[in-house]
Design a protein that fits this description.
Blueprint lengths: L1 H7 L3 H20 L3 H8 L4 H8 L15 H12 L6 H13 L11 H10 L1 H8 L4
Helix pairs in contact: 2-5, 2-7, 3-5, 6-7
């Protein structure tokens, strides 16, 4: 497993960054068009700001098809996550809490985010097990 190898190489920050980026991408794909609701909740974005995130992803018709809606969602979530800097645990925790507060929360059926949150909270333990004391 890649993350195990990275932990053995003492690259915990890289493992954390990979998990964080995976969470951002997975959330964007999972939300799709519902990203607008999330943007209004966590970013306090208005319709003009949301349109700015969507503009680069519009097709020839001037619309974004449903399969491409993850792209502005990813752009927004990535930008939003930058405010956390290296605090990947806080970012994932806050995202999880906000998703739980949405109408029909995706976290009810989508357990991967909870798993990622548990994993990042256990990174220190995983790192210690990668370097067992003999």
């Amino acid at each position: 497993m890649i993350s195990e190898g990275l932990l053995k190489m003492d690259s915990v920050s890289l493992v954390a960054r990979l998990i964080q980026n995976t969470v951002i991408l997975s959330t964007a794909v999972e939300l799709g068009i519902r990203w607008r609701e999330l943007a209004e909740k966590i970013g306090k974005l208005n319709s003009a700001q949301i349109a700015n995130y969507e503009a680069p992803h519009k097709g020839k018709t001037g619309e974004i098809n449903a399969q491409s809606m993850w792209k502005p969602a990813y752009d927004f979530l990535y930008t939003w996550s930058m405010r956390y800097g290296d605090s990947y645990k806080d970012m994932i925790q806050d995202l999880h809490l906000i998703l739980d507060k949405m109408k029909n929360p995706v976290t009810r059926q989508w357990r991967q985010l909870t798993g990622a949150l548990i994993t990042v909270n256990c990174l220190d333990v995983l790192r210690a097990s990668a370097y067992p004391k003999i």
